């Protein structure tokens, strides 16, 4: 059996090998060995979205002020670390691209009789240390193809999924080239393969890397994504990554400050599939399917009213509660087939996959399926892909439908097939699955950084992933949001080749917006007000990002100082950077990094934060500051105005924070500060978590009258 799995030689110095724990321990003690850690796995985490982010107008033409008027990503290369690609997709056509490849390209294509590259997909590698099939760069899950086409797919007219959202698909940087690195098999990605993908992508000469994969959320020096991305950024490669998906309470991944971490939010397109009751009442629903019950009403029944009979009467009482719970969610086998046949069934939130519920209902002869939310689910609606006439409704609608069933002597309903509607409000809203802050690794760095379209995105798909095969498919996740920002980063780098990865990231963050199309703060998936832990600095704005005015730049030594400030040892810094790290005796805190947002955790009484701005504007200008302080926190700036006379000039300022314990209402409080001139608005969020009076040895005085 081979011992060495991968050698990292191009940008990262190291190797992956199979060995016993005792051998790993011995290796760790050898001179010159900086770090040894065990391998692990991580998980994989558009017709309208291009219009929604302002690159096209309402007619599908390039908008008058679009970034596409200046660049579409010509001569740029996006590296996609994912599950491979389906190269035959029309989204990866090389029609119209130059015959010659970019001179900076040093990669290769693992071509074979079953896989070839072209002038669009110019490189393809695969890594299978944990097994996997097929052993080639071909995508068999759909994820990698979807992600790649969002970032840089060619224009393809007449695209739809089940007849919905018909239009022209295209990537954010449609003229850019793509290099794929297949590090994932199914949904699992071995750390050894992940790091090898980073090493090769850096050496191959890509400009931007998209990483729609999770991280370990371990210290940066032992996380392969953090290590790989650090080396990428030091060579000038912009790195964009998904914030991760989950449910209530899931925490953000890919939190290193040199990575642009992207949350997911909706666009202004919906797929309504409403429920009409026999009494004429109509309730809003949402669905993705192409089934129709026609215009007929069908008998309507509540799943909890028709539990399957128990097989042994003496155990009936024991199983009654369990049966009712299963019936409420319409779990397979939980309903009485005789009472469900020919009916539309109302079900609560399922305890199993909703697809299994639909298959179970079809098997017992039900004609339709209404999936309702409970109180925890609130009014959130997801465009779920059902395999029968079905729709999802919110908690209020589900309760009303249930009441109708109880009160009506002959309850009936019909389900209206889904349609495509646009210009919906409010938009954007945060995806209910999008994982949130605070940053679990370094709390003084706000994550995610921004949000981008990631809900019901239509893009290229692998024809091996579904039966019957699909060329294009809707998918949702921060995995879909990340390539929107990777494509935008590609456009910005094409337009400004001298900008550092940190400058590009800053331009995207400081020009992001936090209000939806109703003029109010972006909402989360439960229709509650969202905040920086949901969307970071806000929703991306490509037009504004092309002309940010000022940027917060960061170099390698700044990142090394950051690692010192968060407590890294010299050995850990060397494991991270590949070079010896010497930290000063007095260390600062993570918030000292010149980051485009400010986060202070465990703030006691007061603190000062220094930032440096760099002008990227051709015109001289004077900026003034406006501050919206977090509740209970006083924030002042020194100086309060900055005059820039030329591009590249830098100015430093200090923000002073003082806690007012008489008016501190909650654990985390939020605000912002804005530098502005006559043209630009450079906005940064503020997040503060102050320690209690008791923690700093003070007590609040209370007087009684």
TrEMBL record:
GO biological process: proteolysis
UniProt keywords, alphabetically: Hydrolase, Protease, Serine protease, Signal
Stretches assigned to the Inhibitor I9 domain: 2-45
GO CC annotation terms, alphabetical: extracellular region
Domain Peptidase S8/S53: 73-516
Record field: transmembrane: none
Domain Subtilisin-like protease fibronectin type-III intervals: 592-688
Chain ranges of the PA domain: 327-401
Pfam families recorded: fn3_6 (PF17766), Inhibitor_I9 (PF05922), PA (PF02225), Peptidase_S8 (PF00082)
Xref: InterPro entries: PA_domain, Peptidase_S8/S53_dom, Peptidase_S8/S53_dom_sf, Peptidase_S8_His-AS, Peptidase_S8_Ser-AS, Peptidase_S8_subtilisin-rel, Peptidases_S8_3, S8pro/Inhibitor_I9
Family membership noted in the UniProt record: Belongs to the peptidase S8 family.
PANTHER family in alphabetical order: PROPROTEIN CONVERTASE SUBTILISIN/KEXIN
This protein's name: Uncharacterized protein AIR3L5b-1
Organism expressing this protein natively: Selaginella moellendorffii
